[in-house]
Amino acid sequence: MFTGLYIERKSFMHGLDPRSKLIWSILVLAASIATQFNGIKGIPVFISTLMALSLSGLGTGVALLLIFNSLIFFLVSTIIWAGIYSSQGTVLLEMGWLRVTDVGLLVALGKFFLIVNPIIAFVVFFASTKPYHLMWTLEKIKVPHKLALTFVIALSLLPSMVKVAGDVIDAQRARGLSLDKGSLVERIRKHIPIIVPLFSKMLTDVWDLSLVLATRAVGYGKRTYVLESNWKSSDTIFILVSLVFYGVIAAWGMGLIQL
Fold first, then answer.
1. Domain co-membership, 162 together with 240
2. Sequence-ordered list of residues with C-beta below 8 angstroms from that of 250, at least 6 positions apart, any chain
3. Membrane-spanning residues where (predicted)?
4. Nearest to residue 121, comparing CAs of 185, 209, 33, 38?
5. What is the chain's Cα-based Rg?
6. Of the chain's two ends, which shows fewer C-beta atoms within 10 Å, N or C?
C-alpha cells in the first residue's frame, strides 16, 4: 500500500530480519550516547554506520547527501560547543570571538556523532525495511496495533507530503510568488498561499486513506500477517558482532576500559 522511505534493493541489510536491524540501530544510539563527550571514541561508530549504509545498497547519492549535511551540522556543532568549553583545554584556534580548544573540539565531535550516527542508522533501517514488515516488527515488540499503524502511515506519507509541498511551491513561484524577498513578517505571510493548498491536499489524502482503511476493517479484530520475516543465522551473527563491537566502544567511552 505504501512505500514511504523504503528503497527496493537486494543487499545484505535488506536481507536481515527487521528485528535485528532495530536492535542494531538501538546499539548505535547507545554507543553514541556513551561516547558523546569524546568524539575520537565515536569515530568507529560513525564508520560502522557508513559501512551499513554501503551494505544497504542505497547508492552514493544518498550517502553524499547525508555526509554533506553532516558536515554543515558539524560546523554548527563546533561553534556552539567550542564556545561552551572555550575556557577548558589547550587553545587550537582563536579567531575573534571564536575560541576553539582541544576539549571543546572533542565534545563538539562527540555531540555531532550523537546526532548523526543514530540518524544514519535509522535511515538504513527504514530504507531497508518494508512498511509491511516494519508494522509486523512493531507489533512483535508489543507496540499497540493502532499506535504502530499510525506511526507506519505517518512515516510512509512523509515523502509524498514533501513532494506535494515542493510542487505547490513551484506552482506558486510560477505565478509570481517570491518567498525570499521582504521582511520576516512578509515572508511568513507569503507562505499562506502554500500552506492552504498543502493542508487541503493532506486532508483529501487523509479522507481517502480513512475510507481505504475502513473497507479493509483495520482496527477490528486481531491482525494476521501472510508474510512474516524469519530470524536466520546471519541475523544471530550480525547481532553478536554488533553487541561485542558497540559494547566495547560504549565501555571505552565511559572509561570502563582503556584501548
1. no
2. 30, 31, 34, 35
3. 22-40, 52-85, 105-127, 147-166, 237-257
4. 33
5. 22
6. C
Q: By three-state DSSP, how is residue 224 classified? A: coil
Coil vs helix vs strand at 253: helix
Residues 76 and 152 in one domain: no
* 39 and 109 part of one domain: yes
Longest Cα pair distance anywhere in the chain, in angstroms?
A: 66
List the grid coordinates of 10: 537486494
Residues contacting 75, CB < 8 A, separation 6+? none
Average pLDDT over residues 160-170: 79
pLDDT digits (tens, 9 = 90+) for 226-239: 777 888 999 999 99
Distances (CA, A) of 217 to 126, 149, 222: 26, 13, 10
> Is residue 31 within 8 Å of residue 18, measured between CB atoms?
no
Cell (9 digits) for 143: 507496540
pTM tops 0.70, yes or no = yes
Distance (Å, rounded) from C-alpha 246 to C-alpha 178? 49
What is the distance of C-alpha 132 from the center of its chain? 19
Please, are residues 246 and 28 in contact by the beta-carbon 8 Å criterion?
Answer: yes
Q: Report the alpha-carbon distance of residue 52 to residue 45 in Å, rounded.
A: 11
Domain match, 49 and 88 both: yes
Residue 45 falls within a domain, yes or no? yes
Euclidean distance between CA atoms 104 and 85, whole angstroms: 5
The answer to whether residues 233 and 223 belong to one domain is no
| Residues 95 and 219 reside in one and the same domain | no
Same domain, 87 and 186: no
Q: Quick check: 1 pLDDT over 50?
A: no
State the residue range of the domain holding 189.
143-227
